[in-house]
């Protein structure tokens, strides 16, 4: 039996890399897609706010679906934030030590 038919070829690693790349693209596409969906939903609904029982008219300026899509866009923004951090070349944020910061201001 050849290596290709026995499943020992290097194609498995290639397909895993392709799947990871496709997953990265989908993760990057999520936030803008949800933001566009929020915009389209708000525009198509006439811009009316959501009605809550027992409250005055339009207590919240956005509709329920618009709010949901905006929240989904915010929570899906993590891959974009990671990409921006990697592009800036910073992998960790170093906060100054409180004692060092205090000593620097007393000089």
Which structural class do the helices and strands define?
Answer: mainly alpha
Amino- and carboxy-terminal Cα gap = 77 Å
Integer-rounded radius of gyration: 24 Å
Give helix % range: 55-70%
Percentage beta strand: under 5%
Low-confidence stretches: none
Number of domains: 1
Count of alpha/pi helices: 5
Shape summary:
elongated
Give the H and E element order: HHHHH
Described by its quaternary structure, the protein is single chain
Number of strands: 0
**Which whole number gives the mean pLDDT?**
73
The main sheet comes to: none
Transmembrane segments: 21-40, 60-81
Keywords: Membrane, Transmembrane, Transmembrane helix
Question: Please, could you describe this protein's structure?
Answer:
There is one protein chain. The chain has helices at 3-6, 11-44, 64-75, 78-88, 98-106. Helix 2 packs antiparallel against helix 3. It is elongated. The protein has five helices and no strands. It has one domain (15-91). The chain crosses the membrane at residues 21-40, 60-81. Keywords: Membrane, Transmembrane, Transmembrane helix.
Topology (SSEs and partners):
Layout: H1 3-6, H2 11-44, H3 64-75, H4 78-88, H5 98-106
Helix pairs in contact: 2-3
List keywords for this structure.
0% strand, transmembrane helix, transmembrane, membrane, mainly alpha, 107 residues
């Amino acid at each position: 039996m050849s290596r290709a038919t026995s499943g020992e070829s290097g194609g498995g690693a290639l397909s895993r890399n392709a799947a990871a790349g496709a997953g990265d693209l989908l993760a990057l596409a999520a936030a803008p897609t949800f933001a566009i969906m929020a915009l389209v939903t708000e525009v198509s609904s006439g811009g009316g706010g959501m009605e809550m029982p027992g409250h005055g008219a339009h207590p919240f300026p956005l509709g329920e679906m618009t709010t949901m899509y905006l929240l989904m866009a915010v929570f899906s923004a993590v891959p974009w934030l990671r990409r921006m951090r990697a592009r800036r070349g910073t992998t960790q944020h170093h906060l100054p030590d409180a004692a060092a910061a205090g000593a620097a201001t007393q000089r």
